[in-house]
Design goal:
The chain is of the alpha/beta class and 444 residues long. 27% of the residues lie in helices and 24% in strands. It folds into three domains: 38 residues; 209 residues, P-loop containing nucleotide triphosphate hydrolases (Rossmann fold); 161 residues, 2-Layer Sandwich (Ribosomal Protein S5, domain 2). Strands 6-5-7-8-4-9-10-11-12 form a nine-stranded mixed β-sheet, with helices on both faces. Strands 13-14-16-15 form a four-stranded mixed β-sheet.
């Protein structure tokens, strides 16, 4: 028999005796009596396969979606637990339904457990995606133990749970989605995966801060953590690995959300800059590096006069602090004063860039729009210092290779001998704006 302990319904804190409140989250009367697991004095060990011997267990299972398999490290590993997080409406359920049908088409037995949708709703989505006859088993069960028992009886290869925040354990107090419920539900699914060799995929909702809802230990319990990101109002989606015990986290999968589902994009650069018009002012190409992958994106800027005493600064897809810094350097060291103008900067395609290499293309796009001077077919990257100097950034060869592959006509970087921001502006003709915007007596 196990000993008795008391667990908080809200935060999961455990205490050896009952108290009128939880010492950790300070909730009143939240401690509930639970029976701790019985103590075991023995353990069982086994030796690993000899070095160079044949691999043990099943090989990786392919989902049939190349971008997803790439981020997973080559496919789904038997007995692994994968957590997929993302904002509502970003396409998590759609992607995993497509992955389930791909696994089923490859001969794997797949069980889809959903506590959020009915079987009819899932069938409607499957019909819209054209995969209704793929042979995926569906259960609309909320209790974890019932799902595990069904998976054991059916001897399935993969279980998809949508979502972990809606699953419940009757013995644990609290509603679905509470910290204690999420922790216990995930623990039972992880235990089932490890003892049976069944791969388990969990869908996790995220909070407004972008973190997966529930206890932080949830991400430590699983083997792989993936985040599906993108603007819900646009078609582009990006799947990134935050943790992967079976592969690299330096991979990113790119998809387009369409009526027929999530469409993998093996060449995202072509899609992101395919509609760009180089004859328009305020647009510059930027090869960003996301993990091991270089993506060519378009940085757009719009500069318009304003009568407001506080000009508006808007940045979409990049930190607004970097925009403020670049504008200050343009004013002080390049003679481009925009104190009486609203400035809007955007990374086209819904991708968010946080690396300092976007400073130079942002500055060129802003100066180009301010003077209404198109820079043409130009790609640029580099960090802009506070003294107006340009600094080289990492992965320069990978960025250059991607720009040349896409047929870019001109490349502007610090590695090519361009040491000052003012020199970069003159090189792409955006420096013409200085004669139009420079106040009298202002030095460069």
């Amino acid at each position: 028999m196990g000993s008795t302990t008391f667990r908080c319904d809200r935060c999961g804190y455990e205490a050896g005796r009952w108290m009128g409140f939880c010492p950790q989250c300070r909730a009143d009367a939240s401690l509930r009596e639970v029976e701790a697991p019985a103590r075991r004095d023995t353990a069982v060990s086994q030796r690993l396969a000899p070095v160079g011997g044949p691999p043990r267990g099943k090989p990786r299972m392919s989902s049939g979606i190349g971008e997803l398999d790439r981020v997973l490290g080559g496919g789904l590993v038997a007995g692994s637990v994968v957590l997929v997080g993302g904002e509502p409406g970003v396409g998590k359920s759609t992607l995993l339904l497509q992955a389930s049908t791909g696994l089923a088409a490859a001969g794997e037995d797949v069980l889809l457990a959903s506590a959020e949708e009915s079987a009819d709703q899932i069938r409607m989505r499957a019909e819209r995606l054209g995969v209704a006859d793929a042979g995926v088993a569906v259960t609309c069960e909320q209790q974890v133990d019932a799902v595990v028992a069904l998976a054991e009886r059916s001897a399935v290869d993969v279980v998809v749970v949508d979502s972990i925040q809606t699953m419940t354990v009757p013995e644990v107090a609290g509603s679905a989605g509470s910290v204690a419920q999420v922790r216990e539900a995930a623990a039972r699914l992880v235990g089932f995966a490890k003892r049976s060799g069944t791969a388990v995929i969990l869908v996790g909702h995220v909070t407004k801060d972008g973190a997966i809802a529930g206890p932080k230990t949830l991400e430590h319990m699983v083997d792989v953590v993936l985040y599906l990101e993108g603007d819900p109002d646009r078609g582009m989606r990006f799947l990134r690995g935050a943790k992967n015990r079976f592969g690299s986290t330096n991979e990113v999968g790119v998809f387009e959300m369409a009526d027929s589902g999530m469409i993998p994009i093996p060449d995202p650069s072509k899609v992101m800059v395919g509609e760009r018009d180089p004859s328009v002012a305020g647009t510059v190409l930027f090869p960003t590096v996301d993990g091991r992958r270089s993506l060519l994106v378009e940085v757009q800027a719009l500069v318009v006069p304003t009568a407001n005493p506080q000009p508006r600064r808007s940045a979409k897809g990049l930190p607004v602090a970097r925009l403020h810094q670049v504008l200050a350097v343009l004013d002080r060291h390049a003679g481009v004063s925009l104190a009486a103008h609203d400035v809007y900067v955007s990374v086209v395609g819904g991708l968010r860039v946080v690396e300092p290499a976007i400073d130079l293309p942002m500055a060129l796009a802003v100066a180009s729009s301010a003077g209404d001077v198109p820079v043409g077919d130009v790609a640029a990257w580099g960090e802009v210092g506070l003294t107006g100097e340009l600094r080289a950034v990492a992965q320069g060869s990978r960025r250059r290779a991607e720009a040349l592959r896409m047929g870019v006509g001109q490349i502007v970087t610090a590695a090519d001998g361009v040491k000052r921001l003012s020199d970069a502006l003159s090189l792409v003709r955006a420096g013409d704006v200085r004669a139009r915007r420079r106040p009298a007596g202002r030095g460069g």
